[in-house]
Amino acid sequence: MNAETQQRILDAVDNGFEAQLATTSDFVAIPSTRGAEGPCQDMIGDLLRERGYEVDDWYIDVDDLKDLRGFGPIEHDFSKARSVVGTYRPQTNGGKSLILQGHCDVVPAGPLELWDTPPFSPVIKDGKMFGRGACDMKSGTIGALYALDAIKAAGLRPTARIHFQSVIEEESTGVGALSTLQRGYRADACFIPEPTGGKMVRSQVGVIWFRLRVKGHPTHVAFAGSGANAIMAAYHLIQALQKLEIEWNERAKADRHFKTLKQPINFNPGIIKGGDWASSVPAWCDVDCRIAVLPGWSIADHQKEIMACVAAAARNHRFLANNPPEIEWSGFLSEGYELTDAAEPEAAFGKAFNKVYGGMPEDLVFTALTDTRFYGLNHGIPSLCFGASGGEMHGFNEFVDLDSLKKTTKAMALFIAEWCGVEQA
Length: 425
Description:
This is Acetylornithine deacetylase. This protein has 425 residues and is of the alpha+beta class. Helix content is 35%, strand content 23%.
């Protein structure tokens, strides 16, 4: 691809950026928390149909997925869960096929009064777009769509098959991405524009979600000593798991990528529910937890370590010793992933990156996870993850930096053209 063709594509991104931001704003405005992603999938389906893509929009059947590698248990109502894939089929086969994927699910906004502006009323100010999901990762998904638009606007068309995939459940199980693979979608490479600050994810953690279900013995608080407080007992278990976190971080020092980080393994007790009355010693407490694992670590083995840690802590507690807690696996059972055997797509992306940014992209050792793992681990499809800069993901006042968004859109467009090949339309 010559410099003149590259410049036509870059100019097309510039010319379409105002429309891209408008579409991004509309997308962010949809409160697509878990179980409520349908309107976002409707919007993506409409956008793909308007552009002439072949659209596959289906309801996900968990029974089709439960035996596949990387499946995480679903606990909520999944009857309306959908995946949407738009396929571009070339007139001339000359390049390599590609999956472009984004997730439309977002985490809860939390207390609305702690946001400077409403989370689902996106605002642009100071070169940033604010809103839940603006950074993670609705701007990246729409950016990928407009990267394809730019190629068309430049008078070109790709010469390889492209699947544009909008998935759900990235924030809790990953079964949306898994469903596309079960459906049969494959390509020579996958590209996911998660917000990586302009770096390429080289290695990422996996995640295990679990719930501690702790029993107590209720009594009137006036006689608290004769009861057993389930909330305090849960805290005893949390302290034990914090020690396990320390042990796993020591183990991480042997990993060639994660040894560069002080604490790549993070344990988080993220939800706690318990008790029925302020003047009653609580009889129950549930704690939803998240802990990371590194690439190459067995999920099953580390589940056993979690169970052993909790069991040992229970044995050292006066009530739990005879009333052991239960552990439920409540979401992610996801392996870590290291990008390997990806020299060809990385070389193609390197050319695009150099044209937009200059130099070569830095590697990112990522203490969160992305859907890339399914493509690389399950099917040997090299899966690149690169995207814009932003902040406050999963926090208040989440934002994406618009200058970085434009640059990543340009890099995506050039990468698609380089990897898939282009011809005059």
